[in-house]
Amino acid sequence: MDDATPDREFKGLRDRVADGPRRDDRRKLVASPAIIGQVYANPTVPAATGRFFSVRPAAIAGAEVEGQADAPTPDGGGFLVYVLGSRVPVAGDDLVCRWVDFRWVADSGPAAVGSPPVSIPGCACTSIPAVLSMISANPACAAGMFQSCTLVYGPIPPAYAALDLGSECYMSTASFLDPEGQSFRY
After folding, report:
1. Taking a C-beta distance cutoff of 8 angstroms, is the pair 89, 108 a contact?
2. How far apart, in whole angstroms, are the C-alpha atoms of residue 50 and residue 82?
3. What's the pTM value of the predicted model, to 2 decimals?
4. Are β-strands 51-59 and 79-84 bridged in parallel, bridged antiparallel, or unpaired?
5. Beta-carbon-side half-sphere exposure of residue 156 (alpha carbons within 13 Å)
6. Contacts with 163 (C-beta within 8 Å, 6 or more apart), sequence order
7. Cα–Cα–Cα angle for 118, 96, 79, rounded to 5 degrees
8. How far apart are the C-alpha atoms of 34 and 136, rounded to whole Å?
9. Are 136 and 146 in contact (CB under 8 A)?
10. Which residues does residue 155 pair with via DSSP β-bridges, in sequence order?
11. Exposure b/e, 107-141, CB count within 10 A at least 16 = b
């Protein structure tokens, strides 16, 4: 009976991760080894893909129960992984790192759908999404004044220029009717 446990196997892989497979194992590989790597700043995180990122091996330690949430936890020293894809990872992101042609490689996945983040004058936020989703817990509340919708940041429509909202703001993509039958947008 094999006494290898998932924890022991992970620790063994973690210990070998920086070096990759041994030279005599390279020809025998059928499937590439893979590990979860959590991105960290060393000293900073690159601002584009197509570069090497510093990651730490991460373990998922919770019980294997369907529907149970768990988050990978960094466990061990760091190594470099070449990141492909159009989404630039940030510190704390988890990547599936694979051993390909004698180096670690990860695909960051596609860029977020929609426009790049917006910048609002006077706001200290570093990343504001251009598209927001508003979900109403009770659309019947307040005579239907709170409806679920999509809000998009962009130029103010001419019909709303008199409201003096500035040149751009978040507006709902749909119009709604209030209890008096008047059209409104968020």
Report:
1. yes
2. 7
3. 0.47
4. antiparallel
5. 12
6. 156
7. 95
8. 41
9. yes
10. 168
11. ebeeeeeeeeebeeeeeeeeeeeebeeeeeeeeee
Range in 11-15, 74-78, 106-110, 113-117 the model is least confident about: 11-15
**C-alpha neighbours within 13 Å on the C-beta side of residue 80:** 10
Rounded to 5 degrees, φ, ψ at 133 are -110, 130
Q: How would DSSP label each residue in the chain?
A: -----HHHHHHHHHHHTTT-S-GGGGGG-SS--EEEEEE--SS---SSSSEEEEEEEEE--S---TT-----EE-S--EEEEEESSSPP-TT-EEEEEEETTEEEEE--PPPSSSPPB--TT---S-B-SEEEE--S-TTHHHHT---EEEEEEEPPGGGGGG---SEEEEESS-EE-TTS-EE--
Nearest alpha-carbon partner for 170 in 145, 151, 150, 149: 151
Per the structure block, which two tokens stand in for 27? Answer: 């020809």
Q: What is the pLDDT of residues 10-46, one digit of tens each?
A: 555 556 554 555 555 544 445 678 899 998 888 888 8
Amino acid (one-letter) located at 167: S
Q: Output the CA–CA distances (angstroms, integers) from residue 47 to 12, 22, 53, 55, 131, in the order listed.
A: 32, 32, 10, 15, 22
